[in-house]
Structure formats: structure tokens, C-alpha cells
Design a protein that fits this description.
With about 180 residues, the protein is mainly alpha-helical. It has one domain (about 5-175). It has helices spanning about 5-50, 75-95, 100-125, 135-175; strands spanning about 55-60, 65-70. Helix 1 packs antiparallel against helix 2, helix 2 runs antiparallel to helix 3 (about 100-125) and helix 3 runs antiparallel to helix 4 (about 135-175). The longest helix is centred in the N-terminal third of the chain and has 45 residues, at about 5-50. Keywords: Membrane, Transmembrane, Transmembrane helix.
Length: about 180
């Protein structure tokens, strides 16, 4: 029989663990909710307001001219993005309902791989026309800079998916009875 001091410490420890679990679960739900909100905002903006991705020029008479930076190839990439955003929203809703470590990690790995596919397709299709920028140097440099940035994003996402996968495997190996 543990002494009263040890029993109190064990009970206090148990409460702290429960508090921590509740906070982290609440934090994950907040994260899932923020992700859902962000994905819906992106879905709406990039589907219905893409024409505002443009170079704006103020004319001498005060009017504003909007020159689109997107080519018609944007509409070849848009279904890929919309599909990924819808999958992400659905996955985050599912994770709010069912929140287990192994499930969460698998879903996050899948979503990250989908992100790599979306970014890789964006680089491949490259639906941008930077010729509307009035600076010749910027017109030459911007496509290169955007391509490099997108490749770095894709590689970063790929590394993130790999790290999550390794952590998941290590966690599962530690949990399996030997």
C-alpha cells in the first residue's frame, strides 16, 4: 500500500496527464478547425476571385488597370487544387471526430503527399504570365524565383512527409510486443 504522500503525488500526476491530454486534444481540434477554415477560404478565393491575382496599374486619370498574371493554363491546375482542398477539409473533419495518433499521422502524411502533387503540378503547368510587370529585370527574374520557391516548398513537404512516416514507424515498432 503506497503511503499517503505517494498516493497524493500519483493522483496529482494523473490529473496533470488528464489536463494535458484535454488541452492537446482541444489544441488539435482548434488546429483542424483552422485548417478547415483556411482551406475553404483558399477554395473560394482561388475558384471565384482568381482574377485579382494581377498586376495593378494606376492610370494618369486615376483609374486602375488590372492585368492578369494568370494564363488560361490556370484552369488546368485548378481542379487539382480544388480536389486537394476538398480532401483536406474532409480529412480534417474526420480527424475532429476520430483523433488517434496512428490515424492522424497517416492522414497528415497523405495530405502532405497530396500537397507535393499539387505544388509539383503547379510548377509543371506554371500558369503565370509575369510579362505584365513593367520592369524587364523583374519579368526575367520572377518566373525563376517563383519556380525555385515552389520547388523548395515541394521538397520541404516531401521531407516533412518522410519524417512523419519514419516517426510513425518508430512509434509503431516501440508499441508492438516483442
Amino acid at each position: 500500500v503506497p503511503s499517503p504522500a505517494i498516493s497524493e503525488k500519483m493522483e496529482e500526476f494523473g490529473k496533470r496527464v488528464e489536463d494535458y491530454s484535454a488541452r492537446t486534444r482541444a489544441g488539435r481540434i482548434a488546429g483542424y478547425s483552422a485548417s478547415i477554415f483556411g482551406n475553404v477560404v483558399l477554395l473560394i478565393f482561388l475558384s471565384f476571385f482568381h482574377q485579382y491575382i494581377a498586376w495593378y496599374h494606376i492610370e494618369p486619370d486615376g483609374s486602375v488597370t488590372r492585368l492578369s498574371m494568370l494564363t488560361s493554363d490556370y484552369f488546368a491546375w485548378l481542379p487539382i487544387l480544388v480536389t486537394a482542398l476538398v480532401i483536406s477539409v474532409a480529412a480534417n473533419i474526420i480527424m475532429i471526430i476520430y483523433d488517434r495518433y496512428w490515424f492522424r499521422e497517416i492522414i497528415q502524411i497523405i495530405l502532405t503527399v497530396i500537397g507535393v502533387v499539387v505544388v509539383a503540378n503547379l510548377v509543371s503547368i506554371f500558369p503565370f504570365d509575369f510579362s505584365v510587370i513593367p520592369n524587364a529585370t523583374a519579368v526575367d527574374i520572377t518566373p525563376i524565383a517563383v519556380t525555385i520557391f515552389l520547388i523548395i516548398v515541394a521538397v520541404g513537404l516531401g521531407v516533412g512527409a518522410l519524417v512523419r512516416f519514419i516517426k510513425l514507424i518508430v512509434s509503431l515498432v516501440k508499441q508492438s510486443p516483442s
